């Protein structure tokens, strides 16, 4: 009988990022047989409204749909939960109030990782959606440790990063164009020029567009770190703080 914690993943934000996150969970699992992999309930909830549009433009909130996924997980006795969208963690506190499962928060993991891996870092570059930036999620978490969060200028944010994500054949699409990939890379290079100490790929679409092994600069992939932390939690609770 599998003694590891049952995992629930809320995906669909977008679908490619959710599938990428699930693959990372499998990649980082210490399993050596079918029976040693985690029991995972993956909900590709395509009905979740856009998080940036909700936060920035006051469009429909994604919370009701997120809570539908939570309800599904509660019914199936999920013990650990993660969301394959960093912006969705804007609703973290509300989600925690509706479940007894441990909800893994990538913001906490990133702050701890910077403290241990980059102890002298002060200027932290953030590549993320406008919703994440406007919400102040990273600012609130990292400024507690005396760090300054540096982002793209508003014009660059929209014409480079957000365009790469939302354009036709951008990273929210089933088929991503070379032009969208070039815009994503240009976003990274532009942020790097701001004299930052570390860059955080703080959006799940960044994880599908930028391979950390190709970045010759201190770089943190938020989705990758979330996958590692989630696996550690499910297999050995002592490896991660609740």
Brief synopsis:
The chain is of the alpha/beta class and 242 residues long.
Task: Describe the overall structure.
- This protein is an alpha/beta fold.
- The protein folds into two domains: about 5-105 and about 225-240, Rossmann fold (3-Layer(aba) Sandwich), CATH 3.40.50; about 105-220, Rossmann fold, CATH 3.40.50.
- It has eleven helices and eight strands.
- The chain has helices spanning about 15-30, 50-55, 65-75, 90-95, 105-115, 130-135, 135-145, 155-165, 180-190, 205-210, 220-235; strands at about 5-10, 40-45, 80-85, 100-105, 125, 150, 200, 220.
- It has a four-stranded parallel beta sheet with strand order 2-1-3-4, sandwiched between helices. Strands 6-5-7-8 form a four-stranded parallel beta sheet.
- Helix 1 (about 15-30) crosses helix 11 and helix 5 (about 105-115) packs across helix 11 (about 220-235).
- Residues about 235-240 have low confidence and may be disordered.
From the alpha carbons, calculate the radius of gyration and give it in angstroms: 17 Å
Q: List SSEs in N-to-C order.
A: EHEHHEHEHEHHEHHEHEH
Mean pLDDT: 95
SS field, number of helical segments: 11
Described by strand count, sense and barrel closure, the largest sheet is: 4 strands, parallel
CATH C-level label of the largest domain: Alpha Beta
Number of domains: 2
Gross geometry: globular
Strand order of the largest sheet: 2-1-3-4
Q: What's the CATH architecture of the largest domain?
A: 3-Layer(aba) Sandwich
Catalogue the unreliable spans: 237-242
**Helix content range of the residues, please?**
40-55%
Estimated share of beta-strand residues: 5-15%
State the end-to-end CA separation. 25 Å
What name does the CATH topology of the largest domain carry?
Rossmann fold
Question: Pairing-aware structural class of the strands and helices?
Answer: alpha/beta
What's the count of strands? 8
């Amino acid at each position: 009988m599998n003694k590891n914690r049952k995992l629930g993943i809320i995906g669909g934000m977008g679908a490619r990022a959710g599938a990428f996150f699930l693959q990372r969970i499998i990649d980082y699992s210490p399993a050596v047989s079918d029976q040693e992999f985690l029991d995972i309930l993956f909900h590709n909830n395509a009905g979740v409204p856009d998080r940036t549009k909700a936060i920035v433009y006051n469009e429909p909130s994604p919370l009701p749909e997120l809570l539908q996924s939570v309800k599904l997980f509660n019914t199936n006795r999920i013990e650990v939960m993660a969301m394959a969208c960093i912006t969705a963690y804007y609703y973290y506190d509300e989600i925690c109030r509706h479940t007894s499962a441990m909800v893994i928060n990538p913001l906490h993991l990133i702050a701890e990782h910077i403290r241990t891996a980059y102890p002298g870092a002060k200027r932290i570059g953030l590549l993320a959606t406008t919703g994440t930036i406007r919400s102040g999620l990273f600012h609130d978490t990292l400024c507690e440790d005396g760090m300054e969060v540096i982002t793209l200028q508003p014009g660059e944010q929209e014409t480079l990063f957000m365009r790469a994500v939302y354009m036709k054949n951008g990273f929210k699409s089933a088929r991503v164009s070379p032009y969208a990939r070039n815009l994503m890379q240009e976003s990274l290079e532009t942020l790097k020029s701001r004299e930052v100490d570390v860059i955080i790929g703080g959006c799940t679409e960044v994880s599908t567009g930028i391979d950390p092994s190709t970045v010759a600069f201190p770089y943190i992939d938020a989705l990758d770190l979330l996958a590692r932390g989630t696996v550690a939690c499910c297999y050995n609770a002592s490896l991660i703080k609740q």
